[in-house]
Amino acid sequence: MFYREAGDYKTSYAADSQTFPIAFDRFRYYAVLLIGVGIIPFILNDYWANAILIPFLIYAIAAIGLNILTGYCGQVSLGTGGFMAVGAFTSYKLMTAFPWMDMVTITLLSGAMTAVVGLAFGLPSLRIKGFYLAVATLAAQFFLVWLFNKVPWFYNYSASGQINAPERFLFGQALTGPNADSWVKYLFCFAFVFVLAWVARNLTRGAMGRQWMAIRDMDIAAEIIGVNPLKAKLTAFAVSSFYVGIAGALLFTVYLGAAEVGEAYGIQKSFLVLFMIIIGGLGSLFGSFAGAAFMVLLPVALKVLLVDTMGWNTALATHFQFVIVGGLIMVFLIAEPHGLARLWALAKEKLRLWPFPH
Amino acid sequence: MLDAKSKSFTTADGRTIGPVVMEMRNITLRFGGVVAIKDISFDIREGEIRAIIGPNGAGKSSMLNVISGFYNPQEGEVIYRGAKRPPMRPYQVARQGIARTFQNIALFDGMSVLDNIMTGRLNHMKASIFDQAFWWGRAQREEVENRRKAEEVIDFLQIQNIRKTPVGRLPYGLKKRVELARALVAEPSILLLDEPMAGMNVEEKEDMSRFILDVNDEFGTTIVLIEHDMGVVMDLSDRVVVMDYGRKIGDGTPDEVRRNQEVIDAYLGVAHD
């Protein structure tokens, strides 16, 4: 009914290539932003922030990052957890070494550091692809976690091997540490998600994104029409790692507050983020959000349904969650390889004509 | 008419063929012990339609791959615009103004027609990654400028109605046309077409032939063409190179080639006694 293209004419190429060409989409996007900034911070309680919204925002950044690499550029990576750890440890070292540095700079530098590391581990992608590259990135995952465990300098020689985020302030509000309010953390993550998603959209709709997708769809043809595969793959690795590093840094500083590398940034993290983009939709920014939301909400929803409503015991519900996630991944890979994003797009296509399909 | 030394000449239908733009000198290409191309020399003149023909396995596509830099020949040299071309990667060759289409369609299936064609403009887009990230200044300007060029080609090849369709959904004939558009939009000085009419019906072939002639006519693009349909080759091309088993067995105008005994033998077979 409201979803109409009719009469929405574009008179310039700039207008035609904008992110939300359909007016209804555009207004919905503004509405989401308005609710996210203007309403949620005021009604937010700790449970909602810590169980759902903050992890959703942080994982959305990680999912966008991995989607740039895997979904757009076609390079499979299982090193996400390791790269997140690079972001976390960079932010920890910066926070402890330079106590005067503000958190925005620290987070961005953590991303930059991860981009450099990602670039180094991306070099094998020039020679190997597919499963073999996945194994190479798996090596990155295990190597990085081992490194952060083994070299005490990274965790400032603390006895437990844990890293703890010291208290830092942003505009006079505690952002990290035990006294931080959840609305501050939420808004901080929201700002990062907003800017990073916008940048990702710009990159993927322009020349850079076309190079990535060309490499993904047919690398030989891409090279023959003028894509430098070295540059395209390495920029994808760098940009992707930048995002993943920021997500890792935020996860540690803002969300967890304290982390042990093998536990917080282990191989499970890599799989979690990979599942997010598979279920959400490869090669789609909306899919990154949908997948992150799905994977964050699923345990919460199952807990409410199975434990609180049906009275199962918690352990059984947790195990049942594995079964459901595994089953869903199979279903998605077989029935809808493009994930929730495609289902969403199909629904929108139907809505354009609804209720008069003929 | 076809004196190698002459600067330029005019064809029967009034097109001007310029001086030599690319010359292959004694090209030999081996894959291990297999000799795919054996000591072949020929030249390509500015503005002409140059066909490469030959039976299956003659080495035509390998020749095209040598021109587009995908293979580097073991012997011989490629002279481009008067200078010897050093061994280079295909994307560097593309930047010199050589574009191509493929025998088996090599489009980017996950992208729309428009994005495929815009990818062909990559060599004309120089905005830095930071400009692109913030959709700022140069990135934004280039996007619009190149879109204009892409739309010209879309108009030219009459594919306006499928602009936003994902390429994977298109029928074969249209895919071939989109691939031509992607090569054409780069504004190449030499356009390499590897069997542009393979698997097409007569009507589609006629369309494609007309597009090829129009491209040559309107943009003055030099075209190198591999094709099996002899009728098409003889009608379209100005000069023809004939290959067989990696050797060159004929070179000249369609009429000369048609009368060449070796060519006739290669195509029709010879009785061995």
From TrEMBL, chain A:
<keyword id="KW-0472">Membrane</keyword>
<dbReference type="InterPro" id="IPR043428">
    <property type="entry name" value="LivM-like"/>
</dbReference>
<feature type="transmembrane region" description="Helical">
    <location>
        <begin position="183"/>
        <end position="200"/>
    </location>
</feature>
<feature type="transmembrane region" description="Helical">
    <location>
        <begin position="27"/>
        <end position="44"/>
    </location>
</feature>
<dbReference type="GO" id="GO:0015658">
    <property type="term" value="F:branched-chain amino acid transmembrane transporter activity"/>
</dbReference>
<keyword id="KW-1133">Transmembrane helix</keyword>
<feature type="transmembrane region" description="Helical">
    <location>
        <begin position="234"/>
        <end position="258"/>
    </location>
</feature>
<dbReference type="InterPro" id="IPR001851">
    <property type="entry name" value="ABC_transp_permease"/>
</dbReference>
<feature type="transmembrane region" description="Helical">
    <location>
        <begin position="270"/>
        <end position="302"/>
    </location>
</feature>
<feature type="transmembrane region" description="Helical">
    <location>
        <begin position="314"/>
        <end position="335"/>
    </location>
</feature>
<keyword id="KW-1003">Cell membrane</keyword>
<feature type="transmembrane region" description="Helical">
    <location>
        <begin position="50"/>
        <end position="69"/>
    </location>
</feature>
<feature type="transmembrane region" description="Helical">
    <location>
        <begin position="76"/>
        <end position="94"/>
    </location>
</feature>
<dbReference type="Pfam" id="PF02653">
    <property type="entry name" value="BPD_transp_2"/>
</dbReference>
<feature type="transmembrane region" description="Helical">
    <location>
        <begin position="100"/>
        <end position="123"/>
    </location>
</feature>
<feature type="transmembrane region" description="Helical">
    <location>
        <begin position="130"/>
        <end position="148"/>
    </location>
</feature>
<keyword id="KW-0812">Transmembrane</keyword>
<protein>
    <submittedName>
        <fullName>Amino acid/amide ABC transporter membrane protein 2 (HAAT family)</fullName>
    </submittedName>
</protein>
<dbReference type="GO" id="GO:0005886">
    <property type="term" value="C:plasma membrane"/>
</dbReference>
TrEMBL record, chain B:
<dbReference type="InterPro" id="IPR027417">
    <property type="entry name" value="P-loop_NTPase"/>
</dbReference>
<keyword id="KW-0813">Transport</keyword>
<dbReference type="InterPro" id="IPR003593">
    <property type="entry name" value="AAA+_ATPase"/>
</dbReference>
<dbReference type="GO" id="GO:0005886">
    <property type="term" value="C:plasma membrane"/>
</dbReference>
<dbReference type="InterPro" id="IPR051120">
    <property type="entry name" value="ABC_AA/LPS_Transport"/>
</dbReference>
<feature type="domain" description="ABC transporter">
    <location>
        <begin position="22"/>
        <end position="270"/>
    </location>
</feature>
<protein>
    <submittedName>
        <fullName>Amino acid/amide ABC transporter ATP-binding protein 1 (HAAT family)</fullName>
    </submittedName>
</protein>
<dbReference type="GO" id="GO:0016887">
    <property type="term" value="F:ATP hydrolysis activity"/>
</dbReference>
<dbReference type="GO" id="GO:0005524">
    <property type="term" value="F:ATP binding"/>
</dbReference>
<dbReference type="Pfam" id="PF12399">
    <property type="entry name" value="BCA_ABC_TP_C"/>
</dbReference>
<dbReference type="InterPro" id="IPR032823">
    <property type="entry name" value="BCA_ABC_TP_C"/>
</dbReference>
<keyword id="KW-0547">Nucleotide-binding</keyword>
<dbReference type="Pfam" id="PF00005">
    <property type="entry name" value="ABC_tran"/>
</dbReference>
<keyword id="KW-0067">ATP-binding</keyword>
<dbReference type="InterPro" id="IPR003439">
    <property type="entry name" value="ABC_transporter-like_ATP-bd"/>
</dbReference>
